[in-house]
Amino acid sequence: MELSRDGAALAPNAPTATIRNPEWFVTQRGVSTPTPQRLELHKALKREYLEKYPDVRNESRAMVLAGPPGAGKSTAKGEVLGERSEQYLTVDADEFKAMLLREALRDGSYESFIKPEAVKWLESTGEQFFPLELASLVHEESSMLAKELRDEALREGKNVIIDTVLSSETSARQLGQQLAAEGYTAEVLDVEVSYEISQGRIAKRWQQSYEEATEKGGLGGRWVPSEYARSVFDGPNGKSKSEAAARVLADECPVVQRYRVYRTTQESTSERPAVASWEVDMKRAAPGAALTTPKAAAAAEHYNIAHPQQPQVDPKRGPDLGR
């Protein structure tokens, strides 16, 4: 899709992106702030989002679900958490994209502002577009909403699943610092596929959603520009950026208790099953300890229980246990 390229009509910073609407956002020194009217919408959308998760617990637990588009993060999450996933709030910017587009359809701004002239012209020639194909135009705003909701949930101690590509080591470190500062225990689940599998799944998912919307109506499927998808796989040492960033988060954040990598190396076909496995599984015996195998971590935990550390005595104060 040429329309998705940088500077084109469906680029995230295009003139009809929601953050470019002066009635909705004020931008100063490169920072976009919602106007009071738009802020009220944000509050309403976050309330609506939270209503979908009535059974979330406040146990200060987090799962960072990282991986490229089309990796199968939702499937891996279900395999790990099972029914316990209901106890977690899943923070996913893509959900906010759909909510923003539904609101735009409702209030008329989808046609009056968001839809670019290039798309209107293509529609006049017979080409059909569905709202989620314009999701890039609400990308910045949906990311803003997801971050706001995540920050609020972490301050309240809610169990959270942070569903993210995690394409930056800097953002991974910032997330780790935030989790530690809020007193969380965390797991990192990195779900990886090759670029070819990712692209195939993205195209298949879009095609299925497009056909369903053509037949029954709806928002259609979200298109992930190949330029962006390719950039996610341009990480160090031949790894995806998400894989490198997830490892940094697991290694450097002391509250990450477990780090796992689930990798699909072959997609399923009518002739052969998919080839996928848990490639890495590492744990910490205690906060701040080194990541090691689950067996070694269990042994260390057992040893720590059997041999608890004695309180340190300050020779200047005597054995008052610091009182």
TrEMBL record:
EC number, UniProt record: 2.7.1.176
Pfam assignment, any one: Zeta_toxin
This protein's record includes keyword ATP-binding: yes
Biased composition (Basic and acidic residues): 314-323
Gene3D superfamilies: P-loop containing nucleotide triphosphate hydrolases (3.40.50.300)
Family matches, as InterPro entries: P-loop_NTPase, Zeta_toxin_domain
Keywords of this entry: ATP-binding, Nucleotide-binding, Transferase
Residues of the signal peptide: none
Catalytic reaction list: UDP-N-acetyl-alpha-D-glucosamine + ATP = UDP-N-acetyl-alpha-D-glucosamine 3'-phosphate + ADP + H(+)
Start and end residues of each stretch annotated as Disordered: 303-323
Single Gene Ontology MF annotation: ATP binding
Domain Zeta toxin, first and last residues per copy: 58-237
Similarity section: Belongs to the zeta toxin family.
Protein name, per record: UDP-N-acetylglucosamine kinase
Native organism: Pseudoclavibacter helvolus
